[in-house]
Write a structure and sequence with these properties.
The chain has 85 residues and is an all-alpha fold. The chain is built from 3 helices and no strands. It folds into 2 domains: 45 residues; 38 residues.
């Protein structure tokens, strides 16, 4: 049994290589299995830049709100000047 325990990492390694080689060949042939596997891995894998993405989106929203408010203030000022004239 000790001999089998020594080969377990190698068996797992070779099995992983076999699985990935099959996935690559399926992806080249555009099989649905490979595409589905890729979509699932992408969907369930964590985003390492999630916090950064959230901060960027929040900053973009704030800057858009400020721009919109500035634009509305400019329009109000122009309409006030036009009504005074």
């Amino acid at each position: 049994m000790e001999i089998l325990e020594d080969f377990i990492p190698w068996i797992v390694f070779l099995l992983t290589i076999f699985i990935f080689s099959k996935l690559i060949s399926w992806a080249r042939k555009k099989k649905t299995v490979a595409i589905t596997f890729g979509v699932l891995v992408q969907m369930f894998s964590p985003d390492p830049f999630a916090e950064r993405t959230i901060e960027v989106v929040q900053q973009d929203k704030k800057s858009a709100e400020h721009r919109q408010q500035d634009d509305s203030d400019d329009i109000d000022q122009k309409s006030n000047q036009d009504s005074k004239s």
